């Protein structure tokens, strides 16, 4: 709240759809667009994380990252009401520790350094050094963190704060909840809930962004009348 006036003054476009969203304009097409972008980017970053921390080390022989087991992950294993608690924990931590924290750091650095590119570069360096001890392979860590921060900051400046909030929420759902595609597994229920929430958010964003327009054009309906020349 303290840095919001500075963010509005420095990067006003970043908060346009966020202000509309918190103001109750949930059917605004721009709000739907930014939610859809956030879901797509969040899913992309999650898959990149799985690729670089699981598949890439196995293909190259490099050590992967250490297991990331959080309180919410353990809580989700208990299912039922505990799964709902885990979802709430993940959602809150994602917004506070990812979206709000990165924007806060960017605004403070921009006020100190006076240049946006310097603030982005400094935030990039801080982000890369923040969790270094959690990874056993510097190569995997540098690749993943660079891609993550690059896409995150690109979406932030191109689409705004609402999109990166959705990125953080989607990433938390897909990584904080134990995922499995074995129907017989006792953790399959959590997988269904997490994927259903992400898919529902994507469908909502798409419908609102279209604003009543059809997703695919009917070429026969828009074709020129008979007897007219193209």
What would your notes on this structure say?
With 230 residues, this protein is mostly helical. The chain has one domain. The chain contains 9 helices and no strands. The chain has helices spanning 4-10, 16-22, 29-60, 71-76, 81-113, 116-130, 138-158, 161-176, 188-210. The longest helix is centred in the middle third of the chain and has 33 residues, at 81-113. The protein is globular, with a radius of gyration of 21 Å. The N and C termini lie far apart (57 Å). The model has no long low-confidence stretch (mean pLDDT 80).
Uncertain segments of ≥5 residues (pLDDT<50)?
none
Q: What summary fits the major beta sheet?
A: none
User: What is the assembly state of the chains in this entry?
Assistant: single chain
Rg over CA atoms, rounded to whole Å, is: 21 Å
String of helices and strands: HHHHHHHHH
How many structural domains are formed by the residues? 1
Q: Kindly state the percentage of residues in helix.
A: 55-70%
Mean pLDDT: 80
Number of helical elements: 9
Distance between the termini: 57 Å
Strand content: under 5%
Global morphology: globular
Counting DSSP E segments of at least 2 residues, the number of strands comes to 0
- Coarse structural class: mainly alpha
